[in-house]
Amino acid sequence: MQFLSVNADCFLIELSSLEETLALYSKLQNAQLKGVKDLIPAAKTILVFFNEIETQFQALTSVISTFEIGSSLERNAQEVIIPIHYNGEDLAQVAALQGLSVADVILKHQQSVWNVAFIGFAPGFAYMSSPDHPFTDIPRLKVPRKKIPAGSLGLAGKYSGIYPKDSPGGWQLIGTTTEKMWDLERQNPALLLPGMTVHFEDVTNFPVSVSVPKQIIPTEKPSVEPVFKITAPSLQMLIQDEGRFNQTNIGVGTAGAMDLAAMHSANRIVGNPIQTAVIEVLNGGLKAKMQGSAVIAVTGARSNICVKFADGQNADFDSYQAIALDEGDEFQIQPPTAGLRNYLSIRGGFDLQPVLNSYSFDSLAVLGPEPLKVGDVLYQGQVATSNISLYETAKTNLPMVGDTVELDIVMGPRTDWFDPDSIEKLCQQTWLVTNESNRVGLRLSGLSPLSRKITHELESEGTCIGALQIPPSGQPVLFMNDHPLTGGYPVIASVAKHHWDLVAQIPAGCHIKFNKIEEFKKIENGYEH
């Protein structure tokens, strides 16, 4: 067991096998160590998140290193039978790779017992391993498919997995099922959870059953008042709150407002609790017509708010102030002169329906309230309000296109996978923020790509917000709020938490200069290397 630094509030535990990983994961869940907030198990690692006020990296590693784990695991008693039509387009290729007939591949797969090891890649995507070891490691496709249909059964490495929704992917497809891996209408949206045992039933020669959609009877909307109607769009208009917590066991990440400080300010300015959901607006442009009276605020990127009052008068307002509007008034958030994302709040909040205890939209998982569009009407919420804050101020360091932004980084967990020149290069050169950047991550481009000294494939492991993942191109991807829970490329370092809000405001065309504030830490047998 060894411990690798990741960020100020998380670290990675590396083990020698999947069995050890699952055994330790079970012990950690039962131990409920003080300060531990979340655990993300993967193939041979567990990512541990903790509360920095309640505990520290050294204290936790000292306790966890005393655990005797072995490789025995008390499994979830629940068993699930999944019917499979073994008709996948890669079935013959898998058979050839294994030196088996197609019939033997099907027989070995469906007669083996499969255990859910962990959830990753997408909500409800279960990585299943078999103690029977029916196959040698199966390589992923060299060129991943752009779209794999929901319900497709695939093999990769030593795992089986069923795609819960249409998505790109590189697993070898051997079959399909009509079972829903992910369904928000169920009490437990994910059909498969870590620790469950899965049996596959061969129904290839049975007709595919067609499910009849349930009739949805519309419920009568409670008596709420419309507050404004969107009449012109921004590039992206998303409902966001502080995020979706404690859902990693079903493969769901945090999401949430990318600039939390700006979101909190927007709520304080109108007298809402700071966690109240707001609208995150990308690059300005949102225009709306008031359907009633309200007090709004706009924070985040430096933008003017143009108001056309119902009586024909016009006025411009700065951000970071309360603006009182009446029915018939129109307002528009102008494109930022610095920064990238605005946060729009309304006194009393918006009337919304939560999804998994959050109002945030997750762009990777496609989860939460749908992105807003022209014609949408927002309704007045019933959030308890208090006094309006008069002392909120805009950030003074908001970046503009062409600026160089300095970001602090913590080294790890895979710093030692890179050659010394690349580790130096990470901080010596600047990195361009490309147009291929979004809420999942910022794609960066540098003059000299980074190169690895350890070149074998990394098994999937948990990642955090701010992670600098290095794909084969050597050009970093800076993971942000909607990043996948697990990743298969090594993370050389992570942006420190105190700079996450700043990352949210970096437009494409800026350069980033990384500043190392903590060295890579590896603790093994109680000693730091």
UniProtKB/TrEMBL annotation:
Domain named Carboxyltransferase: residues: 1-192, 249-526
Chain segments annotated as coiled-coil in the UniProt record: none
UniProt cross-references to InterPro entries, sorted A to Z: CT_A_B, CT_C_D, Cyclophilin-like_dom_sf, PxpC
SUPFAM superfamilies referenced in this protein's UniProt entry, alphabetically: Cyclophilin-like, PH0987 N-terminal domain-like
Protein name (Swiss-Prot/TrEMBL): Allophanate hydrolase
Keyword annotations from UniProtKB, A to Z: ATP-binding, Hydrolase, Nucleotide-binding
Gene3D superfamilies the UniProt entry points to: 3.30.1360.40, Cyclophilin-like
Pfam families documented for this protein: CT_A_B, CT_C_D
Top-level taxonomy: Bacteria, Pseudomonadati, Pseudomonadota, Gammaproteobacteria, Moraxellales
Example GO molecular function: hydrolase activity
Top-rank taxon: Bacteria
